[in-house]
């Protein structure tokens, strides 16, 4: 069995274009996570994920809580992110919303999986751990769906 894990913020959720997102997170306000618009056409992304699932892939999300969040705030962030996924990306089989900075390769239940993330350092750490080039660069949302479709074509 294989898996494809998605980051949320800056990958599928447009957190960084929510007005005053950073100030709100620093004030322990979860509304930026609730108000973030999807970064890509979610119907197309869901279609691609459905095809991955048909090939036996688990669809997962590994996302971080806010930097320096309290235990209570992180709990609220987890709930807000789950609600966002339920509304926009309901195909998730495995969800991990972990403390900010937690190495994502240590969080994934399925080793050797694919990571889709906008953060180059996170992707590099994932590749070092897995010793494979099994990441998808999501730093340019305009290319994400095309890159995922190309990957799907390779593994199909």
Low-confidence stretches at least 5 residues in length (pLDDT < 50)?
A: none
| Number of separate domains | 1
Largest sheet, in brief, is:
5 strands, parallel
Q: Name the structural class.
A: alpha/beta
Q: What's the count of strands?
A: 5
Number of distinct helices: 7
Instruction: Tell me which CATH architecture applies here.
Output: 3-Layer(aba) Sandwich
End-to-end distance: 14 Å
Across the major sheet, the strand order is 3-2-1-4-5
CATH homologous superfamily, by name?
Answer: HAD superfamily/HAD-like
Order of helices and strands: EHHHEHEHEHEH
Q: Could you tell me the radius of gyration in angstroms?
A: 15 Å
Q: How much of the polypeptide forms β-strand, as a percent range?
A: 15-25%
Sum up the overall morphology in one term.
Answer: globular
In short:
This protein is 46% helix and 16% strand. With 156 residues, it is α/β, with parallel strands linked by helices.
Polypeptide structure, described:
The protein is of the alpha/beta class. The protein has a single domain (2-155), classed as Rossmann fold (3-Layer(aba) Sandwich). 46% of the residues lie in helices and 16% in strands. The chain has a 5-stranded parallel beta sheet with strand order 3-2-1-4-5, with helices on both faces. β2 (57-64), α4 (71-88) and β3 (94-98) form a beta-alpha-beta unit. The mean pLDDT is 94.
